[in-house]
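TA notes. Do not distribute before section.
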Amino acid sequence: MTEGSGPCPKRLTFARQVRLIFAALAMLPVVGCGEPPDHETRILQHIEAMTEAIESGDIDDFMAPVADDFLAADGRIDRRALGLLARRERLARDAVRVRRVDTRVERVTDQRALAVFNALATGGSGLLPDEGRLWRVETGWRLESGRWRMISARWDPVLR
């Protein structure tokens, strides 16, 4: 074959490139249709999303997985009060950061789980945080219609 007399084996024709792109796009739904995440992973994803939401100041996203019958602080904080507390704490600081460590999720029953972790919460208005505290957090979760909802929480300072 002389130069310019046929298709170049090292280059794909435009039509071939288009076919490959459409074939790759057609595979996307198949690739994304794997097993759903296990229960522990789903709860961890909720906790991570809540952490990101509180840092960004999106209280609605923070509250999304919280059940309507949520109770904390020995029944003194319900869902509404938790939302108000989160708003107050977020408005009081220009920046909020939360770093979680030692997170573990335990399945208590088929419909209940417990997530426990330590969280370093910092806040402030400058380059460095003005304040910070280490908390031990315990959250209770219930499976409702295939979705995990946070039904309880307890947070205690690690150091007093």
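Switch to the second chain here.
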Amino acid sequence: MNKERPSSASQPKEEAFSSTQLLISPVNSLGRAGRVPQFLKTANLLLIILGAIWGAFALVKEQYALFLADVILVAVGLTSYYFLRSKRLLVSLHWLLLSLLIWVVGVAYFISGSGVNHNGAVHYWLIVYIVGIHFVLFGAALILQTSYVAIAILAFILIEYDLVSLDPKYGFPSHDTLLSHGLTLGLVLIAIAVLMRRYIQELGQAEKRAQIATIRSNELLNSVLPPSVVQKVQREGTTYTQTAENCTILFADIVGFTPMSERLTAPELVSLLNRIFSRFDQLALKHGVEKIKTIGDGYLVVSGIPEEVSDHAHRIINLAQDMLVAIKEFDGLSIRIGINTGTVIAGIIGQTRIAFDLWGSAVNVASRMESHGIDGRIQLTQNTYALIKRDYDFDPP
């Protein structure tokens, strides 16, 4: 049997991190990193829409300076959105974060005022700012995230408690204080609710994708490894090995398949093998034996490992008889079958394309029984014969 050379693809090169990845992690359509462009898009749209609403309110109240400030806010959102559409993610992100800080402080100082001695409430927007930062800056950007949050909190405290003297030259009328605070707080809560809703939806989708991936992973593992082995490895996290003294091994080989393969096209060849081995798989499942692998046009099964059974030889013989009948469903084909009983070592090998495999002289002897056998017949060793000689009819070799 030829040994496959390890593929170079099995050892992928480590991807280099770009400046974007260092700040916000690789951007893709799934998971946490996928939230970055989605968050920026949502934040920009919220900025534009809520800024327009607040601007309309200022225009109705004939607060033209505040209206101009809201026009600037909408312009900030449009510019950030333009950078985002132009695939300049970092520029869009930092433009938005820096511009909002400057805008809030500037509007609080020159236009609306804030805190306990003034009438505005513009610094409430810093709450949205602080909440939003945690959705786009994480991982390697911890220092940057902390800096933005610290500045925003400091600005909020300074404005709220007038720790820096504000000079709202175009202050909001005192008789509209309740209305302005209520509108601002309402818009802030709407913005936070929308951002959190998007975040929760993304988490729900990520959880669903993780569940689907886990199910598919388990299905894949169960298709290449015995279920009991999968459970043991998942539970204990160790490399699986097992030795069993009483196992019966079956090798089967399709007679004349190599010459036939020269007459078939590749799709016809693969389709034929798939139909034959799928039929054998059904029989292996029926008789409760463990399929190990196919080797070209050969088929290897075992009984007695990983689960010990007392009738391992009988199961294999019954399977072999059914295989002889099943191969007749495929015109012009026959098989040789070799069987042996003895001690077997089993285990999982490989890091890529892992396989559950068997070793030991008992396995080699079963292979020799097949290769030296007769078409359409079952050839077995004295070890197996001693276990089942009273239950079946035999011909001498």
